């Protein structure tokens, strides 16, 4: 039997990435200032990586003996017994249109997968034969094994044993075009990975990752993670890895063991991850850097503790933040920090203080996004109950567009403050000095041809993630 995995990418202002924000997707549009427009343009051209769940689904169908195809057009589903369309917030109209076209052309069965269809299945049911609600792998395994097409809503429970899943089957994708130039310029040899799912931290209140994966943290074993790295290096020439876990170091010993096993296997890969500063220390940073860590992404969100309390975000403390960021600077580990503007307790003054704080920390990169209540989160439920949603045009829920009524700030004011934040941050001698220092270190490393030399971050573009990422 033949399955077509379909993932249309719409033409929109900004950089569309559908694997960000827990798979709901983002459209990075940093604002209207000259700096913001330049960053948006660079992001559009520098970031291209696949939806990880589609890689897993391709592998599951392949293991069951199906003929697997991947594409973004109706003709990619010609002759398919089943077409699975990925659902996102930021491109759902194109996804619905594609499903309608594929059905009209006679595809035997069409289904939707993905976080947005999971939390808003009623938007998709009239456009498909079935909708998978939840993590899709368990349902896909059943469909692939039985070769029976379901109807209606199919609830798919989480995968408890993540080691039981096959590695993503990137052979069906144009992996040579994967790139993540905010950290790895030049493209080629870049792949995303996921070593755990779920998150138990309180910031799940606003973070969309747990809307589908849940609050229970499930982890792959270090041996399984490194086996996938070896597979990627051996079969795809992987050199650069982005760990997509929202909290890679929740289990510090496991994170350290992964780093040790990378070194023991002799894998000369560079990698980037996201985590929380509460789950880092200097020793762990050094241990991971020795295995190829080049950069970390961390959420700061706001400089105001009252604002953070309003979204159930734990603050690691000023002393801890500065100590860890200073250590990263000394070791040459690039840091990108995330900030959210327009949170419910924000004022123009608190936003200005957050931008000032970001400039004081002076990380290699800073991302300023707009508070967005994602469907499936407590933040969304509260905004809905209080009548704060300004729109149900879901494609505007892209973390760069105000979609929630704020008591003290208009949407245009929030947009203005966002655009100004990028202008203020990146047009500073202090930031330019940090950038040039890292570039100099990088040049020395290349000339020395020493992989173990002090690593550096590869550039400073803000990344498109979501605050809980």
SSE layout and pairing:
Elements: E1 2-6, E2 15-17, E3 26-28, H1 34-46, E4 47-48, H2 52-63, E5 67-71, E6 82-86, H3 92-104, E7 110-113, H4 115-119, E8 130-133, H5 137-146, E9 152-155, E10 179-180, E11 190-193, E12 196-197, H6 210-213, E13 218-219, H7 222-236, E14 240-243, H8 252-264, E15 270-275, H9 282-289, E16 293-301, H10 305-310, H11 318-331, E17 334-341, H12 348-361, E18 365-370, H13 378-385, H14 411-426, H15 429-448
Parallel strand pairs: 1-5, 1-6, 6-7, 7-8, 8-9, 11-14, 14-15, 15-16, 16-17, 17-18
Antiparallel strand pairs: 2-3, 4-10, 12-13
Helix pairs in contact: 2-5, 7-8, 8-9, 9-11, 12-14
Query: Whole-number radius of gyration?
Result: 21 Å
- Indicate the low-confidence ranges by residue numbers: 449-468
Protein structure class: alpha/beta
What does the oligomeric state look like here?
Answer: single chain
Q: What does the main sheet amount to?
A: 6 strands, parallel
